[in-house]
Amino acid sequence: MRVIITGAASGIGRACAELLAAGAMVPGDHQMLLADRDAANLAAAADAIGPAAKPCVADLADPDCGDRIVAAALDHMGGIDAVISNAGIIMGGALADLPISDFDRIFAVNTRAAWLLGKAAYPHLRDSKGAFVATASMSATQPTPALGFYSCSKAALLMMVRQLSIEWGPDGIRCNTVSPGPTYTPMTSAGYDDAARRAQREANIPLRKLGMANDVANAILFLIGPHAGHISGIDLLVDGGMSNMLMPSSGGGVGQQRQT
Questions:
Q1: Which string of DSSP letters, residue by residue, matches 106-158?
Q2: Between 202 and 221, whose confidence is greater?
């Protein structure tokens, strides 16, 4: 399988590359184009995998990112069977206080880049009857205080991929999203390395643990692989059940909950 992975220098993107190279979820030999703006860690990720993985340093906020990444992928692999649009950024702050520049950047990376990448890859995915998967977030459907721009950008991404699933379905292209809940990655480690904060978050997850990069990566690889051959237009939550916690966290069912 010939796969583009963005945000591949660390976290979920790198986990996708490493698990794919190991044959997880999608058996066989694979070629990968790994894209990220972090040149040093991207080179390390590609080196760890070997010649099958080619790094492509790119800022997903750039308007030409899709064309550049797809051109590099074709040069390396000759075609494209799947796109994993995983790169994303987080910005905190109240909506009333944030500047336009922050709005523009987070939507450029979290939403527009997926469209640009998919648009550039479209004719090649059509030829291969391939798959497009984007990493969204449970914040796409659950308002997240102090992460207003992030939530909005991921909500837009969710709908955009659903739209793509309708438009590209007749071409045999499957389009889906994966929505992680609280997940430990280099991007989130500053918050979760605090023991008290981590315990507080885990107490609100039915499985009582944070997700890890591999948990999300395995879901993504499932969606690009043959076992998901008739799945398109869905958002797969990988949140340990946290999205079901509205009633318990608000006091509903008190006395019926099992304590741990």
A1: HHIIIIIHHHHHHHHHHHHHHHHT-EEEEE--GGGTS--TTBHHHHHHHHHHH
A2: 221
Residue boundaries of the structural domains of the chain: 2-237
Smallest CA-to-CA distance from 180 within 124, 237, 140 is with 237
Cα 68 from Cα 1, distance rounded (Å):
20
C-alpha span between 116 and 63 (Å, rounded):
8
pTM above 0.90, yes or no: yes
Residue 44 has pLDDT above 90, yes or no: yes
Active site residue 10: no
Q: Of 10, 85, 122, 154, which residue is the catalytic one?
A: 154
Q: Which amino acid is at 18?
A: E
User: pLDDT digit string (tens) for 74-124?
Assistant: 999 999 999 999 999 999 899 999 999 999 999 999 999 999 999 999 999
Concerning whether 150 is annotated as a catalytic residue, the answer is yes
End-to-end, the C-alpha distance of the chain in Å comes to 44
Is 137 an active-site residue? yes
Q: Which CATH architecture is the domain 2-237 placed in?
A: 3-Layer(aba) Sandwich (3.40)
* Cα 172 to Cα 202: distance, rounded to the nearest angstrom: 40
